[in-house]
Amino acid sequence: MDDITNALFAASRQGNVPVLKEIFSHLKDLDIKDERGFTPLIIAAYNNQPEAVTALLDAGANINMPDNSGNTALMGACFKGYENVAQVLINRNANLNAQHGNGGTALMFAAMFGRNELVDLLIESGAHTTLTDARGMTAADLAQQQGNSVAVAKLQQLTA
Fold this sequence. Notes:
This protein is an all-alpha fold and about 160 residues long.
């Protein structure tokens, strides 16, 4: 990667919005990927940088661009438990039901890792609760497997 691309990834990771805005005047492809397939938006989301997420989206970053495994910025925010970042992405119309290479969704990540405030947010925002992953498991099944009884109860109530 060249210096400006390295600076883009570093500013996204650190949430340095002034540097991001300067980079936007020199670099138009904001969906560039690093060696793992992460975009600057995914990096910002995964590092709990809601202001950087907003700046990247305002500058034209693709909200649903997946990494090499099919994970999106919303999936990363739900995996890590970053409600503020997830809210920004949801408000900007991120695909709530995108599925990665094994069929996992943002709701599945939230349910599996006990991010119950995100389970609520995703459900309230319209995430589908009955999608299945490559093993045929729903978010409720994954929550059950991980002992997240709160999410199990919420998800089963919706599918009953």
